[in-house]
Amino acid sequence: IIDQVGAREILDSRGNPTVEVEVLLDDGTLTRAAVPSGASTGEHEAVELRDGGDRYNGKGVTKAVRGVLDELGPAVVGAGLDATEQRLVDQVLIDTDGTPDKGRLGANAILGVSLAVAKAAAQSADLDLYRYVGGPNARILPVPMMNIINGGEHADNGIDFQEFMIAPIGASTFKESLQWGAEVYHALKSVLHKQGLNTALGDEGGFAPDLPGTDAAIAVIGEAVEKAGFKFGTDIAIALDAASTEFFADGLYSLEGKKFSSDDLVPYYEKLVADFPIVSIEDAFAEDDWDGWAAVTTAIGDKVQLVGDDLFVTNPERLAHGIEKGIANALLVKVNQIGTLTETLDAVELAHFSNYKTMMSHRSGETEDTTIADLAVAVGSGQIKTGAPARSERVAKYNQLLRIEEGLGDAARYAGDAAFPRFSA
Ligand code: PGA
Ligand code: ZN
Predict the structure, then answer these.
(1) From 20, 22, 48, 204, the catalytic residue
(2) Chain segment 245-283, per-residue pLDDT in tens
(3) Using an 8 Å Cβ cutoff, are 358 and 420 in contact?
(4) Which residue owns the Cα nearest ligand 1 atom 1?
(5) For (2R)-2-phosphoglycerate, which residues are the binding ones (predicted)?
(6) Is the ipTM of this complex over 0.85?
């Protein structure tokens, strides 16, 4: 039984405030969850409540914290629920807020309670979180999509695409995949250095060199992959997040100094996929450009994974609309886009039932909380993106996956290239 719910304001990896929630059960179990925060947030995400005013440039979360202490906590405790009743707990949270976008009390407040309750239930049952959420068959370790060049809203360079990730699809264990990723990361640093490029980092721990654009960024990664002794394409492939909503305005995409209509952008992606070993592209089109999304899915959806982030915002209703229209073939999963664990699991379930792949994801503003690592294994998504293999708020998740793999022993399976959609040749 949930006995007490506490909350406080802490800092995230960008130095902005975020919500941390603590839950105490009547058996003495005490757990804590911290909430992440995006920069390139989708218009249709659940609402993150910020204080406004001068304090922390308006980004304080004292109102969200008060909402936990004064309303969400008392509602959950008052309902007298067992922590294992996640769906009922999350419904109480949703009803207490009472708005469709969770804007009254804030998705940041609601998610903190939701995740802390799940952790409490797991800990009270003496189970790892991935085991508690995923059951006895949860054993698939995800491919880490490591973001090693940062652009877009996550860096001050001139690269329009937001994320250039390496996917070590040829590794045989998660542990090996992480080693490969770190080796390529260090090789990339020296490749950039030799070319006289900046090796300062962006928000997700990747380098932020001033390269002219997408092709140059992928080329320099290819060089680093080979320098580190791996085969580009078979050992290590590329995954991109264009985050194109950020360079879309008035019906046009502004990319590398040119303006593209939706129709013009399709051949741009066709060429990218033909030129480079790309296994996945996220947000190739903007969040409400359903027609552009449909066109790109028709054109290359049989060759590459197309992931909806700002498009679907982990929202089962938006995902259902996309599935109905045959748009994209994978879902990006961000717990704070929808605001409760239950709704997150519902979105993943819908995706998997509909033959869509799922990629568990961090936000660009993160904390030391590692919940998403466990969730990736729990739902068997086979893919996780949680930044570069550097910076503790990113590495914390990868390190948790090392522990999970070790704990599973012989039962562990590394997803490898089976994580991605199967394409006929
Ligand atoms: P965000 O970026 O956390 O800044 O929204 C991550 C993403 O777009 O996938
Ligand atoms: Zn994205």
Answers:
(1) 204
(2) 999 999 999 999 999 999 999 999 999 999 999 999 999
(3) no
(4) 38
(5) 162, 334, 363-364, 385
(6) yes
